[in-house]
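S., here's the first fold you wanted:
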Amino acid sequence: MGNPIDFYEAETQLSQLLSRVELGEEIVIARNGMPVARFVPMAVLPKRTPGRFKGQFVIANDFEDFTAQDDRDWYGA
């Protein structure tokens, strides 16, 4: 991480700064010499796999069958 980049410079060179971040560089943006923000590469999220948890848990058939008593128990009324 190098010296902070002034806000005005960052504003005029945003595209180039994002390209540097994509390559793994961290960039600090400063306003009046005070650091206020940091651009960092985003973490790569694992690819989602539909059905990955299939068969690992069961939802009861009466899952949505609430009664007035259930509401009173839940909300303490």
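And the second, which I think is the more interesting of the pair:
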Amino acid sequence: MPEDPAAERGLDGLTAAELRASRRGFWDEAFTAVLLGLVPPGAARLLDVGCGLASAAHALLPALPAVAYLGVDADEGRLASARVAIAAEPWATRAELRAGRAARLPCADAAVDVALVAMTLQHPPDPLAALLEIARVLRPSGRLVAVEPDNLSNLFYFDGPLEEVTAAFRGVATELRRARHPADPAIGPGLASLVERAGFTIRALFPHLVGGSRRDTAKAFLDRVRQVLAVMASGRPGNGTLVAACRAAIDRTEAALGPGRVGYGSQLVTLFVCAADRP
């Protein structure tokens, strides 16, 4: 067992530091604007299911001065870190964190106006049970905002498509998806059907592309790709042969491009965004 609690891996397979870096990688102003646009006017209490380090509180509460935030997560270590960070914020009195799991939320019936579940339904073995529990704690006509990825859709570019790297990543992700079943890191495309099965009425459904593009050398960009692969592979069961093949594909791509070549590198992933109301 690691001596440093921050080095422990959560249900998502990430350490707290890796989770923080992952959130910084996709949670930008555009993503915040998407979420804010789905919070109905007059909402007073927002539940964040699987809140982790409470990224949603930091992103949303400054723009929602009338909203109280409740974050729920099963990881006590992450909740402790989140409490420390929240304490320094001017909106800290509007934020509360509780320990709990998505399938058994520590909330009364019809207690919240909005429930956010972002990058969380991909982890439990029964996401439908989690959605039914969210329906329990939402008031009638309350709003569910669900955001889940298709982690098979990592796309890589450097002045053009890096087809070999993208294909190799898909192989690793596919194997990890099989290993983690019934949890599903590519749950995004099936999100809307799950939401409807839980009894919600869908109000909005759309894809949101996340990732970054920057001017850099091929080596610097592909070193970041190697880091993404290392995080994907660490702490998770999977086929080491496919991970090694992916590393080799990255190495070949760097040699073909030339390590010192300057260009524009991008990594993109599709998130599926669903807003739905409880009848």
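Why I say that: The longest helix spans residues 163-180. The beta strands are 45-49, 68-73, 95-99, 112-118, 138-149, 155-158, 201-217, 262-277.

Talk tomorrow,
H.
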